[in-house]
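Work Package 3 (structural annotation) set out to generate three-dimensional models for the target panel prioritized at the project kickoff. During this period the team completed the workflow that converts sequence records into discrete structure tokens, so that structures can be stored uniformly alongside our sequence database. As a representative example, we reproduce one entry of 275 residues exactly as it appears in the project archive.
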Amino acid sequence: MTAANPATGMARPPAPPRRWSNTRILGHVLMALWIISGVSLVFYLGSNIASPFVDKYWFNYVKGFIVTLQIVGVSLLIGALLSVPIAAARASSWKIFSAPAYGYVYFFRGTPLLAQTFLIYYGAGTFRPELEAVGLWTFFREAWYCVVFAFSLNTAAYQAEILRGAILNVPKGQWEGAAALGISKPVAFFKIILPQALMVALRPYGNEIILMIKGSAIASIVTIYDLMGETRRAYSRSYDFQAYIWAAVAYLMIVETLRRVWDKIEARLTRHLKR
């Protein structure tokens, strides 16, 4: 049914039929190929779920899955704690605070996570006598701690920039209103500005968590048997390519579950903003 034009009262003419252009045909062909590929993948996984490979290595995948969640969870928590003072220093008008914070963020956002992990894991051995003298060698000789340390520093830089942008997005009138009420700047920041900034930063924070989950596969290169580490070990022993297919499915499940949970959290926290 076509709606009437309010000016003339006449029915709007129907839209002309869409032509089958080359672009439209190509789009339908690509979509059909994606559907066929998806169905084929589901059929392949379903037919191999009781295969000897799955029966032998599924428990290793579960252990690697747990290790991945531990690394990402601890790194994100430490990074979140570090990001608050870094973001505050970045937003400060005092160069003594903003300059070091800028250098920190510039370095960890401008260099690959793999290089940062190697720098900490392999580079710490160069300073073994000094680290032993201060009692830190027991920390840096363990690959798990080095990975968590590198990941925490990396995500802290990204989270600090996310938080700084969200803080700058809060209207300056909030600061002025707090000052007019006699509220000190630290109290205004933590009680008024920061909660509003976190609302703005919810979606970028979700993206950072997803990127950290996918980037955590780097840990397998430094002898950590996370999900990707167990996948590499399973493939080196079986030479069965489905090892990587199951790993991809596992990562996809993690990301999709997190995305849906984060959407629910965001909808819950911002329900008062919807009309």
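The chain has twelve helices and no strands.
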